[in-house]
Amino acid sequence: LAARGGIVPATFGTAAQTLVLLAWCLRLGQVPGAPETALFIQGMFPLVVGVIWNKVLLRSIRVTADSDAAAEEERRRARAADEAAARGRALMGRAEHLARPVLERLARRESGEQIALDAHIAESAIRDLIRAPRLSVAPLDAACSRARRSGVHVTLLDDGDESPLGDTLIGELATLVADADAAGCRSLTIRALPPERPDAVTFLAEGLA
After folding, report:
1. At what angle do helices 113-131 and 140-149 cross, to 10 degrees?
2. I need a surface site. Which of 33, 36, 132, 148 has the fewest CB within 10 A?
3. Edge-to-edge strand list for the sheet holding 153-158
4. Cα-flanking dihedrals φ and ψ of residue 87, to 5°?
5. pLDDT digits (tens, 9 = 90+) for 70-91
6. Cα(11)–Cα(9) distance, rounded to whole angstroms?
């Protein structure tokens, strides 16, 4: 019992055995001698061994549990680091895809208003990737690029987490950007809100005709 954690029942059992032994000796008018002492020791020995084993076993279980918890936490952190690294590589790949055409044209010493505009569009798109990655997706990114080419100042901000906003919402935002651009809007600000807010995004258009 003691080895399995039942220290209290085992103690009561040993105490009862000892009382019975003492009562038997007193009834016979004898002082407990070697045989009785041997019986007492035999009764106490399993209790002592069981208590010690139980303590060692519990400590081992706790150490194992703590070790397992630490290992699981380490695996969780490793997974999070891998996911963050993968997202970083994906963003770097997209940034390179946006910047490379302009950089190659600049390397060929191309100049003029067109390359300046293209560089501005690429720089703005890369800035969007950093500040609002959930909003820098198709078809909204293309709509924002077209609006910028028309002279609209477009600002994308993201105060939320990493959960996607959904294709329907992104499509609606792209339509709003196109409509605002067609209506002569001078400035657009789209902000993705934190998940605890009732609204997913805010859309602010200024200077409509």
Report:
1. 140
2. 33
3. 153-158, 187-192, 201-206
4. -65, -40
5. 778 888 888 877 877 777 788 7
6. 5
